[in-house]
Amino acid sequence: MSKIKALFIFEVMGKPPEHIIDSLEKLVLKLDEQKGIEIIRKEIHDAKKVEEENSDMHTSFAEVELFADDINLISLIVLNMLPAHIEILEPADHVFKNFELSSLLSDLTLKVHKYDEMAKVMMFERQNLLTKLKETEDKVREYDKNFEGVVKVRGEEDTKAVEVSEDKGSGDKPNEDERSDGENISESKEVVDTKTKED
Questions:
Q1: I want to staple 90 with a disulfide (CB 3.0 to 4.6 A). Which of 5, 60, 126, 175 is the partner?
Q2: Distance (Å, rounded) from C-alpha 146 to C-alpha 186?
């Protein structure tokens, strides 16, 4: 069976630049250690700063040309190492055998199920967090009627925030409990005065 020659491009973004280059070198080394993989050319490019305002991130990429024993190894690299680009150089034509296609589709299905499971767990945790935030807000409202907290889900970004706004004038105005206590005190004084006059 003829080997498959392919070109992979792996891209990494982060900081500092030295860390990016080190990460790419480790990735290429890990790939080279895989059984059935023979790297024939590799090139790691210098890190460049991302051209965005107020960004200190850098990006770099590695080109790796290799031979793989079969198509299943190519698919495993794609699914597990997530290259930015892949190009099959040789052979020009490839005939899939039943077990090759079955193995490839099984690996793909397993990966999709894994991502689906992770997505469902994240959605459950998100909903659980929102519920706890709402319960906390209700408890705070019972304790402090001046609390103006709001649990918000901002648009499509799936981000949550608890916004608390304080009443700046609350320090100058007595709350209802203070007013009621004051009224009770004045009423009790009137009752005492009345009894004194009667006596």
A1: 5
A2: 26
